[in-house]
Amino acid sequence: MNNITSDKILKRLLKLHPKTIDLSLGRMQDILNKLGNPEKKLPPVIHVAGTNGKGSTTAYLRSILESANLSIHVYTSPHLVRFAERIRLNGKIISENYLEEVLEACEEINAGEPITYFEITTAAAFKAFADNSADVLILEVGLGGRFDATNVVDQPLSTVITPVSLDHEYFLGNNLLSIAYEKASIAKTNTPLLSAKQQPAVNKVIHEVVTSKGGKLITEWDYQIKSNGFTYSDSQGSLDLPIPNLHGTHQVSNAALAIAVLRHQDKILINEEHLAKGITNAKWPARMQNITNSRFGKLLNNGSELWLDGGHNPAAGQVVADSFKDRKLILICGMMENKDASGYIQAFKKKISKFYGLQIDGEASHSAANIIKIARSLKVNSAATNSVEEALVKIGNKHEVTVIICGSLYLAGQVLADNALIPD
What we know:
Layout: H1 4-14, H2 26-34, E1 45-49, H3 54-67, E2 72-75, E3 87-89, E4 92-93, H4 96-110, H5 117-130, E5 136-140, E6 158-161, H6 169-172, H7 176-184, E7 192-195, H8 200-212, E8 216-218, E9 221-226, E10 229-234, E11 237-241, H9 251-263, H10 272-281, E12 289-290, E13 305-309, H11 314-322, E14 329-333, H12 341-348, E15 352-357, H13 368-377, E16 382-384, H14 388-395, E17 402-406, H15 409-418
Parallel strand pairs: 1-5, 1-6, 2-5, 6-7, 7-8, 13-17, 14-15, 14-17, 15-16
Antiparallel strand pairs: 2-3, 3-4, 9-10, 10-11, 12-13
Helix pairs in contact: 1-4, 3-9, 3-10, 4-5, 7-8, 11-12
């Protein structure tokens, strides 16, 4: 796809970024007013916040709803390979021509006023969503919740909080409870809010925020993992469901949350067949994605496995590590310099047989030397590498191994592009 024009527009929009950021929704509301308030003309909205699992939960919601033959808009961030991935209209990634059209409309109407990149691109997405009919819009929060550019929908169908942990501390603070407050602040009056399993103190904050806003906190649902699937239960009864399509033990939790959301709303009819079909068909790239059959995978022994995961905080690392119970792992890892590399690597410490650290091309990432220094401080067998491909060549094809490329969505996007695995 030729996306030269939209890339040029996006680069211009980056230059509008305010010199100082005031945490408010003022700029977002201003541009939406100028656009004729598309946020008031959206399909029913499911608003999803959280630290880990937002994308996977969104993928399950979309897949279940599409299994019910409904048309679904989706907004996610960041993208992996191309910006257009962030905006899905009726299930399909927005076309390059239409993306250019809505971006230019927002650029023109903003008239050079200071505005963040995420605000103006979210406004463009809202315009596209409002101008195209659909049954549901799944709207993923970009950062936090309270002052996120998506938090302008007055009466969503449902609000959702996936697992909360430390991330983006520069913006959200390094206090887990303050982060929980920011995320819970997407709660709205008379709107259901469903939360994943959280630490007790986080649950308390969520309860307080939802109560203060007059929302409806839904807690009476649960799930139990079995050998051939899982059982979901709530006040409406129990369902025996298959193993979700996305890899990792944590994906049952994400699938169960999506199911709970759809069983606790009264606008859309969803049955057990839709739920089962949806969770077994869900796709979400760069989250525990098996890329053994890719070009990179062919550099390894035939019995080896190559995985790709874009998680970038200690909690994300832990769920990946837990998914490989009794295996030794080789990690090829690059991380942004504002991420907790030590905490992330620590999650894998007992399972790492070899750690390759690299700098991510074109990004503000840890240098290979720095990430190796961090790994060695944890007594991890480590070596620097110039690229993922170089590391895979070093690993070679003599032995069966399990390799995970990990630590950053930016790195994951580059790997997908290098292997012609472009999200569609």
